[in-house]
Prior knowledge:
Blueprint: E1 11-12, E2 20-23, E3 32-33, E4 36-37, E5 47-49, E6 58-61, E7 64-69, E8 78-79, E9 84-85, E10 112-117, E11 123-124, E12 128-133, H1 139-152, E13 163-167, H2 180-193, E14 198-205, H3 213-220, E15 228-232, H4 233-236, H5 239-258, E16 263-266, E17 271-276, H6 287-300, E18 304-307, H7 317-321, H8 327-346, H9 357-361, H10 367-374, E19 383-387, E20 397-401, H11 407-416, E21 421-426, E22 439-443, H12 446-451, E23 458-459, H13 469-484, H14 490-494
Parallel strand pairs: 12-13, 12-14, 14-15, 17-18, 17-21, 18-20, 19-20, 21-22, 22-23
Antiparallel strand pairs: 1-2, 2-5, 3-4, 5-8, 6-7, 7-9, 10-11, 10-16
Helix pairs in contact: 1-5, 2-11, 6-13
Amino acid sequence: MNIHAPARRRHLRLNALDNLVVAVDPIEKGTIIEGVAAAARIPRGHKMALTKLAKGQPVIKFGQIIGFAHAEITPGEHIHSHNCDFAAFERDYRHAEDATEEDVLPLDQRATFEGFRRATGRAGTRNYIGILTSVNCSATVAKFMAEEINRSGLLKDYPNIDGVIPLVHGGGCALDIHGEGYEVLKRTQWGYATNPNMGGVVMVGLGCEGFQIGRWKEAYGVAESETFRTMTIQEVGGTKKTVMAGIEAIRAMLPTVNAVKRETLPASELCLALQCGGSDGYSGITANPALGAAVDLLVKHGGTAILSETPEIYGAEHLLTRRAATREIGGKLVDIIRWWEDYTARNKMSMDNNPSPGNKAGGLTTILEKSLGAAMKGGNTTLRGVYHYAEKVDARGFVYMDTPGYDPVAATGQVAGGANILAFTTGRGSAYGCKPTPSFKLATNTPIYNHMIDDMDINCGDVLDGVSLEDKGSEIFDLILRIASGERTKSEQLGYGDVEFVPWQIGATM
Length: 510
């Protein structure tokens, strides 16, 4: 779905098969659009019918089904949730027919950034010390440790360290220690501990919780070192003693963590997480396809991009299976879709519980419409791998990771998978940041960019004024390289990221 928005048009027909247009600016009642008079005012980002649609007839946008008329829709009528419904329908899951061998540039022709080369061989864009918690019961102790380090002024003597972050969460106990939820938390904790943006880690627990630090260390063969320490409140002797022990552990690792220096590295070392939140009717027209163009550039330079948020590719997954490198990769994605259909059904939900009220106010009517736009973040290259939540991403190129659509949970899984930079598109104006992985935000429209200028890093609304998606993609790619080299994003300047660590909790709380 290559979208090319024409310059300075009040409306867009995105595909010749579409039976609607999208209002770039509000369409006033009576305005003639492609020979059809608007029957009512159409808000910007919303849809107007071009043809008569009988009850049950598919509503088409991007050349794909986004819903079905639940009553007759007349030409010129506003199409939205009052007359367009979600309904499940069979998708044609053809596999690997659009897969190609990418023309990846030779190493000496690839773009570069200034990053941190780790002993593991991986590359970091930031250099943090993280305080992980095995259970919510140790969350306050972890926060006390970080607050004391930051308050003390110690970090002023260690300029190569970006900060000390308490990565606390609400789980870790009252769960099936042999179940899926435990495995997800185990992978997530390990992924954060080994993310290349981490220079050192302290992990603190209570001692009696279900998520035992000792069992976790044994599973991954982890040993204590000068940059990795663990402790429990019960073993050390209470809150005050544990806080002091943690501070001393961090103090001891500061010189080692600070010793790392930035060096020139190829863009192939970048692993970009793709997120969208607070989406609107422009998301699939401006920011998402522009980010997709940047992804295609990153892949050309040998890098990796992770598309996620399974509830938000539902209805577009058949386009991804066509791009899968193999039938097995495409089949794995379909299996994940089936798991979600079962997951929502047994929890008495619908896949159409998403989009949110804000998404709908911005012009998105069904999850099918939202997903077709969201999937555009992944560009047009071959799908090289499909991963479960928080699994380590070991393939290069464009890949997929199963996550919920809820942004903090989704991003947590991607960072655990190894993402060292994160791109976040938004049309309604999401306030989000991430540590240890820097997150930058792309506004889908100029009004939200101007209105929330302190939060937005780049404006993609100018695509509607004639800037090509290719040029915008190049602009985004250049920003990725600058951020990877140390340039601070808006969310970093605001101090976001300390509370956005939200592991996915699957299963019953016992």
